[in-house]
Amino acid sequence: MFRSNLKKVTLLVVVGLFFSACNAGNDQGTDVQTSAQASPKEAPKLTVMTHDSFSISEQVMNAFTEASGIEVRFLKSDDTGTAVNKAVLAKDKPLADVFYGVDNTFLSRALEEGLFETYESPLLKDIPDHFKLDPQNGALPVDFGDVCLNFDKAYFAENN
Question: Do the record's keywords include Signal (predicted)?
Answer without folding.
Answer: yes
